[in-house]
Fold:
Amino acid sequence: MKRSYNLGYYFSEGFHSIFTHGLMSFAAVMMIVACLIIMGSFSLVALNLERELGKLEQDNEFLAFVDENYTREQAMAIQSHIEAIPNVSYVAFTTKEEAQANYAAKYASDQNAELYSELPTEVFRDRYSVHMSDLSLMQQTIDAVEQLEGIQGHQAAPEVAEGFVLVRNVAAGVALVLILMLLAISLFIIYNTIKLGTFTRREEIAIMKMCGATNGFVRGPFIFEGMLLGLFGAVVAFFLQWGIYSLIAQAIDTGATFQLISVIPFRDMWSRVLGVFAATGFVVGAGGSVMAIRKFLQV
Amino acid sequence: MIRFLDIQKNYDNGTKALKGVSMKIDDGEFVFLVGPSGSGKSTIIKLITGEEQTTGGRIMVNGYNLNSIRPNQIPYMRRTLGVIFQDFRLIDKKTVRENLEFAMRAVGASPREIRKRIPYVLDLVDLARKGDRYPGQLSGGEQQRVAIARALVNNPQMIIADEPTGNLDPQRSLEIMTLLEKINELGTTMLVVTHEKELVNRFSKRVIAIENGRIISDETGGYYKNEEII
Structure:
């Protein structure tokens, strides 16, 4: 019962304190908004980059050739076995006639086009184009496909795949490090902002402690205040981020310079962005308060 | 009840604030603690409230052994004490009633307990009609009465008053001391630290005099005998 009185008290005190220390509250919210927008913008750029890389990765494939002694029916029966291999996302069967036609079409504008188009179908083999979910597992996937009965040889460009994997890993690593750094900087700034706020109330804290308040009880309103400021900052940052992102996305979609790039629509990500902002604001607000008040509890 | 047994207190800067202080204050007593600046009075208060720890000796406060008390027990020990300061230490942004409510909330009192207790305490300190005023709207004497009400509101076993009349004129000082005597008669132990010789002599209570970290006299019904310590 006492705990519920306390929760009500924490909330009420924390809420009122936001307004009685209006300037510091405003500064803390602005800090949270600024940090979240910087962090959010960077994360959204990283997310779009990841998707663009993913799309390029999806275009990367290898060819698995079917034994030339296999009949068409036998060759087509292998497809389900390839699809069953882990990491295979998509498989397309191409007959040797189609392969010959594609080859001729590819070199149609070449000066020796006639030579290419007259190549006999027997030179080609039935084949599968194999697409993978994770390019870093390309070699294992090729090995697994080669193990299948009826597959004889493959054609792949592992160096391209390795290049994509390297770029993706570097981008993910840089993004992670920068986001962690920004998070630490945000926490430090908010800690100092809240610390300034608690400094003005050190007398109140000393009185509470002298009356016999436990550390948990003294912390309560400050934690609630920090959480509320964090959540409020997160909501403001979310709407600002939405506006900024939409403006940039519109500029990219309509601009001639970025024709090859497509941007993830904000509506596909809003719930995740709001969730991450709210969680970050909540943790940073409450964590900053706990850290800021620690010194004043030693009475 | 307070027991000090051969208490020593040395600060980090080398100051020897207390040099073997022993004393006993029983429940229901009214005691003046007198002595010049730097004699060790404030250190005694800080030791009783748990703000400082002894360098040597043993302390018992209202059943708590402060030599072996766990940090999480200190708040519960403090709930047996009410502290009054010379500069009142009221929260200016809260009304008189809210200041008292704040102190009761700090010890987890329920809204019902608060509603019941505050009017009684305000009446006791004769501020029943000023509960909605802010400290800035009250005189010095009234502010000190609010501070006394706050010290009293959680029904402590003992009140420690650190120079409670230091900022007041003689008439207001007499009123405050009379109020503290009245509270003591209701059963609360009272330890009053003061410089006011005339007040001490007027009330004829137990007087413990301290100088250079040592108790130099402890007499019931005593008064400021040693002119030099004023």
Q: What stands out?
A: Strands of chain B lie at 2-10, 16-25, 30-34, 56-61, 64-65, 81-84, 158-162, 189-194, 206-211, 214-219. The longest strand of chain B covers residues 16-25.
